[in-house]
Amino acid sequence: MEYYFVYGGIALCLFSLWAIGRHDWLRLSSLSRSVTARVTGHREHYDDGARNWAAIYRFSAEGSEHEVIDSVYGSTRSPPEGTEVRLTFPVGHPELARPPRPLMWLGVYGVLLFLLGMLTAKAMGWLH
């Protein structure tokens, strides 16, 4: 019975790595462009009764205006409206612009790979 959970965990780790990796593959495999964007507002989201916000950024790139919403929500409206923020995106894909957060994504990938390694070691009988 225990191995159902171990193999289910391995499958979940592999699926999670694939799901986030397919979005990051374009960022990792192509040239990046950096722009300065202005915070024009915040999108509100309720999660378990708590109110959270994500910044809305507006910038000009590749001959047109673009507006993107940050993928990371926070408990406060930050950065404040009117603030200028550096965004990066793969060349030719300004709709994928976001603030660079290399330590956060390194942590996410690191945790998933660590869990995958531990579950694989358990399945192979190396951990008791």
Written description of the protein model:
The structure is a single chain. The chain has a four-stranded antiparallel β-sheet, covered by helices on one side. The chain has 128 residues and is an alpha+beta fold. Strand 1 and strand 2 form a beta hairpin. It is elongated, with a radius of gyration of 19 Å. It has helices spanning 2-29, 102-123; strands spanning 32-47, 50-61, 64-69, 84-90. The chain is built from two helices and four strands; from the N terminus they run H-E-E-E-E-H. Helix content is 39%, strand content 32%. Helix 1 (2-29) runs antiparallel to helix 2 (102-123).
Order of helices and strands: HEEEEH
Unreliable stretches: none
Radius of gyration: 19 Å
Sketch the major β-sheet. Answer: 4 strands, antiparallel
Roughly what percent helix?
A: 25-40%
Q: How many E strands?
A: 4
Going by helix content, strand content and strand pairing, the class is alpha+beta
Distance between the termini: 15 Å
Outline:
elongated
Tell me the β content. Answer: 25-35%
Largest beta sheet: strand ordering: 3-2-1-4
Mean pLDDT: 93
Number of helical segments with 4 or more residues: 2
Which terms summarize this structure?
single chain; alpha+beta; 4-stranded antiparallel sheet; 128 residues; elongated; 2 helices
Helices, strands, pairings?
Elements: H1 2-29, E1 32-47, E2 50-61, E3 64-69, E4 84-90, H2 102-123
Antiparallel strand pairs: 1-2, 1-4, 2-3
Helix pairs in contact: 1-2
